[in-house]
Amino acid sequence: MSIYKLTIMALLVAIAVAGSIFVSIPTGIARAYPVQHAINVIGAILLGPVPTIIVALLTAIIRILTGTGSLLAIPGSVIGAACAAFAYKYSGKKWLAGVGEVFGTGILASLFAVPYAQLFMGTSVAALFFMPAFFTSSLIGACLGIIIASSLRKTAPSILITK
Asked: Which residues cross the membrane (predicted)?
């Protein structure tokens, strides 16, 4: 990986961590942190799958260590980042990166979170318990990410790393 790509990755991690401090939306059972999901979509479009997954994982770990995220930040961000990045890689369509983020986080990660929460957090909940919060957060973030990535492609094409 180039220094340039690592710098963009570090910048996206910093924005996601800072965004989780300042932007949260109550969604009933939990709080939505849409900046993480926006960063996942932006990373998917600008960087590709592996760097985007690394950004999501580092962001989740930092959020857990700083108290701005729970252990659910790991599946909630990494699965969505992977789905967004692969959806964009194989389609080349920004909106599909957003759909990948919403599907990955809002559906897959929310279902994975149930046994994950049982194992790592000692919490036993029903299968669809996390879905409303994960879905809402990822939908808001995905829309925001598509808008920002589209704007970046028009105003700052020099930062683009992938197609």
From this structure: 6-29, 41-65, 71-88, 95-114, 126-149
